[in-house]
Write the structure tokens for this entry.
Amino acid sequence: MTILRYRLLWLLAVLAVPASAHHGSSISYDTTKQWTTWARVVQFNYKNPHPTMTFEREVQGGVVEPWVSELLTNPSMLARQGWTKRKSEDALAPGTRVKLTLATSRAGGFSGIVMGIQGEDGAPIVGGGRPAQVPDLDGVPGGLQPEGDTMLPGQPVEGGAP
Amino acid sequence: MASMARSTIALPTRSRWSMTCAAVARTLLISALLGVPLVAAQPAAPAPTPGGIGNSDSDTRSYDKRDFSGLWARSPELYGEAPCPECREPVGWPGYGFFGDIPARTEEGQRRMDLNKPARGLELGSAEANARTDLDSGLRRAILPAFGNDPEMRCEPLGLARLITFAGPGAAMELIQQQDRILQTFEWTWDFREIWMDGRRSPNVEDYLPRFNGYSVARWEGDTLVVTSVGFDDRQWIDQHGYPLSSEAVLEERWDRPSPNRLRVQLTLTDPLLYTRPWQASTKVWSLIPKKSMAIAGWSGILEDRCVPSDESMFNQVRDRAAGLGEE
């Protein structure tokens, strides 16, 4: 029980750390604007530095959106939580229906970071926690996209230095 | 890893010492949780604060202050061990890094630093970065990783200072101590270095190939192990914030073990080509992790947490999409 308590404390601490600690991800994604959606796994890659996943979500009008994503967590953290490679790959086998908590990339498009994963029974899987109170945008085209055109930090300026 | 989890691996019988440690740790934890003092006369540990100050370890067993052997981590909670507040970086610093008393750069130092484009730290141009003028400019210039050039994101060797100061989830390390040397292994990137204690002197670096982890020799000053490292490959960054290091740099590490379950180091970088004065880092502290606690499916020890170029390349395709690059 104590071990679980300390590990939970640690997990909370890790999740509280800006995602910048994780390969600079907080700058690539707007993690202040998370949302949930149902999705179907296309491919899951349990690899360093962070697992990646492609998935599809069906939106209004029967349109299927192909997304690419990275996971906030990483294999060493997952393995220590018991989510070993085989177990994670089994849980996210191609075709598996999952509920994802996402943050869209700041550049927009079908690109995001996975903050949490739930199976169809509602249980968190592959290190994914239960989603916070964030908008459920299942079926909404594009999910939550950035508003307006903004220059991204470090983005090269046409005809000039970044 | 999956096959590892499914295999039955025969582990060496736990030593009586480690069993005793585990029993003591359990007892202390239970005592702490229940608020029941074990021994009324035990002195209270100083109140710990993040950033290497204080010591939250209340273990009063006798121990060898010159024995650094063991598995060490800066996030003991990950292994089910008691938290170590002083193992964290000082409050107010962005993430983790060398930190401390950051010196001004020489003209050459600033030139080299400007060539390095980190993706960690406070976001360039953000309100927070603009407001935190108390922080060195090097900590306030993070850009999207797709537009940066962090060598870690190409799986290039991190280099010694960055290995030591890394404090992410894979920050575990092991020290294997022998009479004539200490072997230090790092989990993230599965790297290592030797600290020689056989009386040899630092090499004339012109005679040797530069190394990402340098050449390390050590001597005891009381119970503090003073390690001097030279001969660095200057392609490395000192930390994830893109501070450069030249081949003339000298890194001094002062390691000590202030209590049974704590190891700490004070780092000082002297690199007159790039910095106007020696740079003393914030103090780094690790917590001792019992072997049985640092285990997955019964297999203990640090992980082979490599940065594999083909994996990184796959990841970078996703990273680039997040910056609006690549195929939609």
Remarks:
- The first helix of chain B runs from residue 2 to 6.
- The radius of gyration of chain B is 21 Å.
